[in-house]
TrEMBL record:
It comes from the Bacteria. It comes from Neorhizobium galegae bv. officinalis bv. officinalis str. HAMBI 1141. It holds the Pfam family HTH_11. PROSITE patterns: WYL. Transmembrane segments: none annotated. This is Helix-turn-helix type 11 domain protein.
Length: 231
């Protein structure tokens, strides 16, 4: 499968997604810029790959809900975005998350056609190594607490080195070039607080779930900070 054909099939899928009722082959061919004969071949190819396209020549075609786009249908821009994102995570995140990014990219590469796999392997998009302090606690524990909505007990140093002990409700983890920041509700301060992970001396798991849902805390924090939702 050539790159041009991959992108053509992707365009056909995107066109079909815009219609809830059957659309004629002639109209699909006109919108995707191919001949009617090529369109019929492309529809057959998509059906063979698992796309739930109903219809036939003369009656029209419709894409039924539930079809997930296979990795081989990524465009070149999407592949570059995946490579760049994975490389950024590998450089910026903790070791387990970095390994997850590398493994995910390897799984995608395993099912790509040869020409697109070559694009992935030879990507020229590079990510610089960040400069930041070393974390003294396991970021995997923080991510686990966020997912499970559990309270953490922290020993935290401020910029002057003063140590405080906190119970916090972690609900977000921010990754920046020079620092990583845990966002949490602090029981001591009774407010949202931002904790640099390189200043967390220790973090202990508790079996206590915090009393409010993570999406609610995230929404209220965004509103308090004036931060729009991410796309």
């Amino acid at each position: 499968m050539t790159v041009a054909r991959s992108e053509r099939l992707l365009a056909l899928l995107q066109t079909l997604r815009r219609y809830r009722q059957p659309v004629s082959g002639a109209k699909l061919a006109a919108e995707t810029g191919v001949s009617l004969r090529t369109l019929y071949r492309d529809i057959a190819s998509l059906q063979a790959q698992g796309a739930f396209i109903e219809g036939e020549a003369g009656l029209g075609y419709v894409l039924r809900p539930g079809f997930m786009l296979p990795p081989m249908m990524f465009s070149q821009e999407e592949i570059e975005a995946l490579v760049l994102g994975s490389r950024w995570v590998a450089k910026t995140a903790d070791s387990r998350l970095a390994a997850g990014a590398v493994d995910a990219l390897a799984k995608i590469a395993a099912v790509l056609p040869p020409d697109l796999k070559e694009d992935l392997d030879n990507s020229t998009l590079l990510v610089a190594s960040p400069r930041r302090g070393e974390d003294r606690t396991d970021l995997g524990l923080i991510r686990r607490a966020i997912r499970a909505e559990h309270i953490l007990e922290l020993a935290y140093e401020d910029e002057k080195g003063a140590l405080t002990h906190r119970k916090v409700w972690p609900f977000a983890l921010g990754f920046f070039d020079s620092v990583r920041v845990m966002v949490a509700w602090c029981e001591l301060r009774q407010d949202f607080r931002h904790f640099r992970t390189d200043r967390i001396s220790s973090a202990a798991w508790t079996e206590t779930r915090y009393p409010r849902r993570r999406p609610v805390l995230l929404k209220e924090w965004r509103e308090a900070e004036g931060i729009p939702p991410q796309p």
